[in-house]
Automatic annotation (TrEMBL):
Residues 51-99 form the Pheophorbide a oxygenase domain. It comes from Salvia divinorum. Transmembrane segments: none annotated. The keyword Kinase does not apply. This is Flavonoid 8-hydroxylase 1, chloroplastic.
Amino acid sequence: MALLQSKSLGTTTSLHLAYSTAITLPVGMIKAQTRHHQMEKKMWDYPLFRRLIFAAPRNFAIWLDWIIPRWVLHMTPNLILDSDLYLLHVEERKLRDVGPRNWHKACYVPTKADALPAAFRRWLNKYGGTQVDWRNKYSGELPPTPPREQLFDRYWTHTVSCSSCSIAYKRLNMLKTALQVISVASVAAVAAAKQGAISIAVRYYMASMAMLCFVASKWLSHFIHKTFIYHDYDHAFN
């Protein structure tokens, strides 16, 4: 199971992913929850909170699931969903501006792959009065666009809810701290050693180890931040 959540518009959305193409509901932000062999059935939660049904069973290289940690497999779906997240955020505002019955004026859906959301829209307009009956729980107003740090947040919307990613986050932070301690301890040991107490070769070795541990801790800190906390997605460069 892969878990990815995205917070937007004052609501929290989440995605549990397999590893393939998704079927997206055409309105609002997204919430999805699937497992390798199990999918949630509920589609509509409440206003601004939607589910994405996603499944990609495969019959090859299944052994990789037992070797590669799940949090590593989550990295690619996270990037894919980040690329879609902001587009969906903008799209729902365009849909609001043109009105639910004129959704086709804001969405260009010419391909066969677009048949499902287009048919869903026609069905919803015909039988649902253009929207789900929210029982007066939703006024139709959208909250302001949040900062990108909140829109693309991963820690509160994914990491804390994903058992694999949360464990990896804690362990990698422990490793980062250990590297920093080794770096400082190595420098302190060399500085505190009396002249002649340790050989020049050992001094160079400890100094090199301190430098390598320091650089590794900095790289690991950056990796942890972009993988588990916040990773901005710039569509101009992707």
